[in-house]
C-alpha cells in the first residue's frame, strides 16, 4: 500500500478532529477482552454464535459497499472481523471505515463462519483504543531491510510474525536451561554488574563512574569471580543468566552487550561439565525448535551426545601439520605466524599465536558439535592445571557450526598459583595483550579461605540461539542490538 508524503499530517488531523468531538482514543484506560484472536479461531465451532470481545491492531481492510472485512492482529495471531452498515448504523459504520491501518481497536460481536469457511466476528460494537500517527511499512508483511529491522525492532515485530516466534523460541531456550539446572540442584543467583575490578574473561571492559563514591567502576565482562566467591561461601551449585559487557567490535558474531549462562558446581571437574554442556544444549534445542538435528548455514548438525572430543594441540596438529605443544619462544611464534600467514598485526607472543592459529586453521572446520579440551595454560588464567600435563589447563570449549559457544574448566582453587597467573597476565598486558586479566586481591583473599574442587561453565545464549534458530547474525536473536547512530550508519 502506497502512502502519500503527508500521511502523518492526515492522520494527525484526524486525531485532532476526534479529540475535538470528544472521542479521544488516548483517553481510553482499558478494554476487557474475553478471548485472544487465536482462541476464537481454534475454539470454533464450540463458540459459534457466542458473543466475544477481542482487541488488536487493524492490519487490513477489504470494503464491499455496505460491509467491510478487516484483519485484526494480536500477539496470538490473526482474526477476521466483519463490520456491516445494517448492524452498526450509518454513522457507526462510517466511523469504522475511517480507522487507519495500524490503529488498535477493540471489537465486541458474535462468532460465525463465512461462506468461504473463515472464522469471523460480526462487529456489534467497537472502540478505538490507540491511533497510529505513522503508517506501517509499505507492504507491512514484507519488511526485509536488515538495518531497518534491527534499528526499528517494533516495526520488524509488527511486519514479520516469524520474528516474534524466534524470540519466543529464545525464551523457551532459557527456560529449558533453568529447568535443567534447577532440577540438578543449582541455585539461581545475581551478582554485581558494576565491579571495582573486572574479571572472569579475556576482554576489554566498559568504564563508568560513581559520583557519590568518587570511583570508577567497570561493567562486568563476566560474573565468574563473584560466583566462585559464592562457592567459597558454602553454596555448592550456583548459576546466573544475565548480561555481560565487552568493549569489542560489532559484527555478525559479536555484540558488546550479550547474555551469558554461567554455572559452578563444587566437587566437579571439567569432565563433569562436558556432560552438563551436552545436556543443556540438547534441552535448549528441544525447547526452541523441537528437535536435536538442526540446519545452520546449510550444514545439517546433529546435537545428540556424545559429542566429538579433541585436544587443543591435537586439533592444531591435524590442521597445520605442526606439533606446537612445546612452543615457548615468542620469536619462534612470530616466525611461525609468518609461515602460516597469520598477520595484521602478527602475534608478538606464544599465547597470542596459538590462539589465532586455532581460530584460523581449526575453528572453521568444527561443524559438528565438538569439545576441544586441554588449552594452553597461558590462555586459561583461571583454570586448574591438568593433573598429568602441567603445561596445559583442564579447560574445554564447545563448538557448533564452527562457532565457539562456551568456555569451561576445572577452576583454579590454589590461591598461590592464581596469584602467579595474575602476575603473568600483567606481564602480557605490558607486552600489549590488552585483554589480559587484571589482578584481583579480594578474589585472592576469598581463595585463601579455601574453595573446594569446582567445575565452571559459561555458555553464550545469543550465539546458541543464532545457531539453533538458524539465523545468519546475532542481530536476528537480540531484540535491540547495538548499532551506530543513525546519522553515521553509512559512514
Summarize this structure as a short list of keywords or feature phrases.
491 residues; alpha+beta; OB fold (Dihydrolipoamide Acetyltransferase, E2P); BirA Bifunctional Protein, domain 2; 2 domains; 9-stranded mixed sheet; 5-stranded mixed beta barrel
Summarize this entry quickly:
The two termini are 31 Å apart. 33% of the residues lie in helices and 24% in strands. Helix 5 packs across helix 6 (161-183) and helix 10 (330-340) runs parallel beside helix 11.
Any chance you could write out the topology, listing elements then pairs?
Layout: H1 7-20, H2 37-43, E1 51-64, E2 67-74, E3 77-84, H3 85-97, E4 104-113, E5 119-130, H4 146-151, H5 153-159, H6 161-183, E6 187-188, E7 194-195, E8 207-210, E9 215-219, H7 224-233, E10 237-245, E11 257-266, H8 270-289, E12 293-296, E13 299-302, E14 308-311, H9 312-320, H10 330-340, H11 350-362, E15 370-373, E16 395-400, E17 403-404, E18 406-410, H12 415-430, H13 441-447, E19 454-460, H14 461-468
Parallel strand pairs: 3-5, 6-10, 14-15
Antiparallel strand pairs: 1-2, 1-4, 2-3, 4-5, 7-9, 8-9, 10-11, 11-19, 12-13, 15-16, 16-17, 16-18, 18-19
Helix pairs in contact: 5-6, 6-8, 9-11, 10-11
Task: Note down, in words, how this protein is organized.
There is one protein chain. The chain has about 500 residues and is an alpha+beta fold. Helix content is about 35%, strand content about 25%. Strands 6, 10, 11, 14, 15, 16, 17, 18 and 19 form a nine-stranded mixed β-sheet that branches. Strands 1-2-3-5-4 form a five-stranded mixed beta barrel. The radius of gyration is 29 Å and the shape is elongated. The model has no long low-confidence stretch (mean pLDDT about 95).
Amino acid at each position: 500500500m502506497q502512502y502519500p508524503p503527508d500521511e502523518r499530517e492526515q492522520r494527525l488531523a484526524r486525531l485532532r478532529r476526534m479529540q475535538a468531538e470528544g472521542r479521544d482514543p488516548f483517553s481510553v484506560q482499558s478494554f476487557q477482552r474475553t478471548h485472544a484472536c487465536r482462541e476464537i479461531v481454534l475454539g470454533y465451532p464450540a463458540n459459534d454464535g457466542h458473543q466475544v470481545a477481542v482487541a488488536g491492531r487493524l492490519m487490513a481492510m477489504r470494503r464491499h459497499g455496505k460491509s467491510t472485512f478487516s484483519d485484526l492482529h494480536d500477539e496470538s495471531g490473526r482474526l477476521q472481523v466483519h463490520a456491516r452498515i445494517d448492524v452498526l448504523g450509518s454513522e457507526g459504520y462510517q466511523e469504522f471505515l475511517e480507522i487507519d491501518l495500524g490503529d488498535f481497536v477493540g471489537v465486541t460481536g458474535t462468532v460465525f463462519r463465512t461462506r468461504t469457511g473463515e472464522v469471523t466476528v460480526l462487529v456489534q460494537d467497537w472502540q478505538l483504543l490507540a491511533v497510529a500517527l505513522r503508517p506501517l511499512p509499505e507492504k507491512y508483511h514484507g519488511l526485509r531491510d536488515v538495518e531497518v529491522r534491527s534499528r526499528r525492532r517494533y516495526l520488524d515485530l509488527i511486519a514479520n510474525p516469524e520474528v516474534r516466534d524466534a524470540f519466543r523460541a529464545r525464551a523457551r531456550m532459557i527456560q529449558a536451561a533453568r529447568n535443567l539446572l534447577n532440577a540438578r540442584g543449582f541455585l539461581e543467583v545475581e551478582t554485581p554488574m558494576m565491579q571495582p575490578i573486572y574479571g572472569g574473561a579475556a576482554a576489554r571492559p566498559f568504564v563508568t563512574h560513581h559520583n557519590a563514591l568518587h570511583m570508577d567502576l567497570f561493567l562486568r565482562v563476566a560474573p565468574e569471580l563473584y560466583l566462585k566467591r559464592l562457592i567459597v561461601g558454602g553454596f555448592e551449585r550456583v548459576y546466573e543468566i544475565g548480561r555481560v559487557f565487552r568493549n569489542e567490535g560489532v559484527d555478525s558474531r559479536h555484540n558488546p552487550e550479550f547474555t551469558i549462562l554461567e554455572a559452578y558446581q563444587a566437587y566437579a571437574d571439567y569432565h563433569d561439565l562436558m556432560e552438563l554442556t551436552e545436556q543443556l544444549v540438547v534441552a535448549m534445542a528441544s525447547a526452541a525448535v523441537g528437535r536435536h538435528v538442526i540446519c545452520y548455514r546449510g550444514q545439517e548438525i546433529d546435537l545428540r551426545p556424545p559429542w566429538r572430543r579433541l585436544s587443543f594441540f591435537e586439533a592444531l596438529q591435524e590442521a597445520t601439520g605442526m606439533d606446537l605443544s612445546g612452543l615457548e619462544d615468542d620469536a619462534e611464534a612470530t616466525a611461525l605466524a609468518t609461515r602460516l600467514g597469520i598477520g595484521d598485526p602478527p602475534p608478538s607472543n606464544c599465547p597470542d599465536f596459538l590462539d589465532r592459529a586455532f581460530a584460523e586453521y581449526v575453528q572453521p572446520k568444527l561443524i559438528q558439535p565438538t569439545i576441544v579440551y586441554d588449552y594452553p595454560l597461558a590462555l586459561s588464567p583461571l583454570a586448574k592445571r591438568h593433573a598429568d600435563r602441567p603445561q596445559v589447563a583442564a579447560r574445554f570449549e564447545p563448538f557448533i557450526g564452527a562457532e565457539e559457544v562456551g568456555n569451561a574448566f576445572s577452576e583454579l582453587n590454589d590461591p598461590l598459583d592464581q596469584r602467579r597467573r595474575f602476575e603473568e597476565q600483567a606481564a602480557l598486558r605490558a607486552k600489549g595483550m590488552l585483554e589480559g586479566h587484571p589482578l584481583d586481591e579480594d578474589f585472592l583473599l576469598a581463595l585463601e579461605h579455601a574453595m573446594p574442587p569446582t567445575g565452571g561453565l559459561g555458555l553464550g545464549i545469543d550465539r546458541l540461539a543464532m545457531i539453533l534458530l538458524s539465523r545468519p547474525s546475532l542481530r536476528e536473536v537480540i531484540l535491540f542490538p547495538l548499532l551506530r547512530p543513525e546519522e553515521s550508519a553509512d559512514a
